[in-house]
Specification:
The protein is mainly α. 52% of the residues lie in helices and 5% in strands. It has 2 domains: 148 residues, no CATH class; 86 residues, no CATH class.
């Protein structure tokens, strides 16, 4: 990787193109240019047959310069550093600060490329690329450009590898409540990127994370268990607990079925001790909202109330004094 610093002091990590890919791109560009040059030459010969030999020679030289120098410069300028060969190889020409090239960059690269590629058959360009730390030829050095790779190998990220099968369920008794979120994030990032790390560096990081995790859980790392496998197993155990808690299969949800298996007397006593859920009483009309709740009694008429109770409720309270808006919850 090559670090380029932009004008805003932002470091860009780009992968410079090496000699094989650049040579293949140049070869494809030369083939395309030669095809265009042959087509233009045939057209000129057919259209200038009536001219003298000096005029035909001048037109041929002008066409040669225009096609082999002007066309590549125009293509790189208009495509911002992507010629036909570079597009096929996944390369691009950028400035030293990572920005797109302009006409002056393409002009310098094209003019110097005639000398170091066409006139010397690419020998000077190969030597300069071998000497340069970023694989730049002389045209790139004088123009202040760099050829980088646009298509890089895609590595799978964001996937936590599963632990070995012999570690499944081994850490089900660990207390994970004291592990902070920052440590979980660090462990997850390591597991998703451990294939990209140097083996020695990855092993030391796994040992350090496993030690921190063991201190938080209060249980040491088992003997003979690699630190990366230990981290993967603990992360899987945490994910399993969160899944059980989210989908109602955890210890909290198991308490409800266990309570229902008790005796009827225990359930009755628990129901008496627990506050009942509030449900507003359904009164026939607002006129009876202030009437006290009377326990049900055997039916003794149309109203179901005794003679002593009926006057106290119906006669002592005048109709004009009865509230008709709110309601009084039962005592």
């Amino acid at each position: 990787m090559s670090e380029l610093v932009t004008g805003e002091a932002v470091a860009l990590e780009l992968r410079p193109a090496r000699l094989p890919s650049r040579a293949l791109a140049v070869l494809l560009d030369l083939v395309a240019v030669m095809v265009v040059f042959v087509a233009v030459t045939i057209a000129l010969v057919a259209s200038t047959a009536s001219l003298d030999e000096a005029a035909q020679t001048a037109l041929s030289i002008a066409a040669f310069v225009l096609v082999l120098v002007g066309v590549p410069i125009a293509v790189e300028t208009l495509s911002h550093g992507r010629s036909l060969g570079k597009m096929a190889c996944g390369l691009r020409v950028v400035r030293d600060d990572g920005g797109p090239i302009r006409f002056r960059h393409a002009l310098v690269r094209g003019l110097i490329g005639v000398i170091e590629i066409l006139m010397t058959f690419g020998i000077v360009a190969c030597i300069a690329s071998f000497v340069s730390a970023r694989g730049r030829r002389l045209g790139d050095v004088f123009a202040g450009t760099l050829v980088v790779r646009e298509r890089v190998p895609v590595t799978p990220t964001g996937f936590v590898p599963p632990p070995p099968p012999w570690l499944a369920g081994r850490f089900s008794q660990l207390d994970l409540s004291s592990v902070p979120d920052g440590l979980w994030l660090a462990v997850r990032q390591y597991l998703t990127r451990m294939q990209q790390l140097d083996p020695q560096v990855g092993w030391s990081m796994a040992e350090r994370l496993a030690s921190d995790l063991a201190q938080r859980t209060g249980a040491p790392v088992p003997q003979g268990v690699p630190p990366a496998a230990y981290l993967a197993a603990v992360v899987q155990e945490r994910q399993a607990r969160e899944a059980r808690r989210a989908f109602g299969n955890g210890p909290d949800s198991a308490a409800a079925p266990a309570a229902e298996t008790g005796s009827a007397a225990e359930r009755a006593s628990t129901a008496d001790m627990a506050p009942a859920a509030y449900a507003p009483p359904a009164y026939p009309s607002p006129a009876y909202a202030a009437s006290p709740v009377v326990p049900s009694a055997p039916e003794s008429g149309a109203t179901g109330l005794s003679a002593e109770t009926r006057p106290a409720q119906a006669e002592e309270v005048p109709a004009g004094d009865r509230p008709r808006t709110g309601f009084v919850p039962p005592a």
